[in-house]
Specification:
By secondary structure, the protein is mostly helical. The protein has two helices and no strands. The longest helix is centred in the middle third of the chain and has 17 residues, at 20-36. The radius of gyration is 14 Å and the shape is flat.
Length: 81
């Protein structure tokens, strides 16, 4: 799974708070590794709004909307969509 990213990072055009190229390279690596072992990748990077984060990296605990969306994705993958 590619975990949710704080939506406010999209406003960081100059890359002061994060490395966009590094994030893309990491996602590409996860996808390539998953494909090699026939595992699906759930991309949750855009699921949560900025106000769902305690800081740039950590979601508020017990976010039912995130857990529900993740469970739905997992079930869809298991059913073969």
């Amino acid at each position: 799974m590619l975990p949710p990213l704080n939506a406010i990072l999209a406003l960081d055009g100059p890359g002061v708070f994060h490395n966009r190229d590094g994030a893309k390279a990491t996602a590409d690596l996860v996808r390539a590794s998953a494909a090699r072992y026939c595992f699906p990748v759930i991309d949750a990077r855009g699921w949560m709004p900025a106000e769902s984060f305690l800081d740039f990296d950590h979601l508020f605990p017990d976010l039912a909307e995130f857990e529900t969306a993740l469970a739905r994705e997992i079930v869809d993958e298991l059913r073969g969509r």
